[in-house]
Write a structure and sequence with these properties.
Length: 285
């Protein structure tokens, strides 16, 4: 899951015996979200950004680790270590050399507001400590590398109105909470307001009604047009719709400006949440 969090999390620590038990390799793993874009546009202007998508490990870091193992115990492949890491992390690991893909993405801003593009990628740090089990001479060393995972998060926000645009004053529209919408490999933050029939959620500049309270998690099927173009590219999202888990989300600090920051034109669509693994989406005509 592409659960977004602040700071750094230690997620695993395991030991591998090598060279028929004559050496040991300790591995400590931590994850964090690293920004890949933090930029903004306002007052109707468009922000064009060349977004970069990377997956894997830097070749220099990988080679340094492999060379250390080969020099110490003659191990020429890290496939065994990768398999054990995957087992301990219970997720896919990408230790291939970094593959990079770029694409230009346009981020529009409201005519009288400001749009801040915030895109993050989850990085995974591996700290290896090697030691031989010998009485008189113990060869030991440390090595590190960072994996660029396939997990991405869109934390972008819109402020409308923005007083710097010098537009005719209008009443800002408040919202009642935030949802963390998790598609699996990608996720995004979406504001919502409570209504008489459930909640009104805003996704990629569009509004939709959902029969939910916003107070607990629910599963919903979301059409691809409600996913931002940047997230489609980063997550290689090409299907017509995606099932997502929506969970109430609370940021550490929500300022007064942010609390009045979401107002877009409504569209005539109702998304029906899935109360279990089964459900359907209805689009009003």
């Amino acid at each position: 899951m592409a659960e977004y969090f602040l700071g750094r999390r230690d997620i695993a620590s395991f030991t591998i015996e090598l060279d028929r038990g004559n050496a040991v390799l300790q591995c400590d793993v931590a994850e964090y979200w690293s920004p890949i874009i933090h930029d903004s546009s306002k007052c109707g202007a468009e922000l064009t950004y060349e977004l970069s998508k990377k997956t894997g490990v830097k070749e220099s870091e990988k080679v340094a680790f492999e060379d250390s193992l080969e020099a110490s115990i003659g191990l020429k492949s890290i496939a065994q270590i990768k398999a054990i890491a995957k087992q301990n992390l219970t997720t896919e690991v990408h230790w291939e050399s970094v593959q990079e893909e770029k694409r230009k993405v346009v981020f529009p801003s409201p005519e009288c507001g400001k749009y801040t593009a915030l895109q993050y990628q989850k990085l995974r740090d591996y700290h290896f400590t090697f030691q031989e089990k010998k009485w008189f001479h113990k060869n030991s060393w440390q090595s590190y590398f960072t994996e660029h995972t396939k997990f991405y998060h869109d934390d972008s926000k819109t402020i409308d109105p923005d007083p710097n645009c010098n537009c005719k004053p209008k009443e800002p529209s408040d919202f009642d909470g935030l949802l963390h919408v998790d598609f699996g490999d990608t996720s995004m933050i979406a504001p919502f307001r409570k209504s008489s029939t459930g909640i009104e959620i805003e996704l990629s500049g569009k509004k939709a009604n959902i029969e939910a309270t916003g107070d607990s998690s629910f599963i919903v099927n979301i059409p691809i047009e409600y996913v931002p173009d940047s997230l489609k590219f980063l997550g290689d999202m090409k299907e017509e719709s995606y099932e997502a888990t929506a969970t109430p989300y609370s940021e550490p600090v929500i300022t007064h400006e942010l609390a009045h920051s979401y107002e877009v034109e409504a569209v005539e669509m109702t998304i029906q949440p899935l109360s279990s693994s089964e459900g359907k989406m209805e689009v009003e005509s």
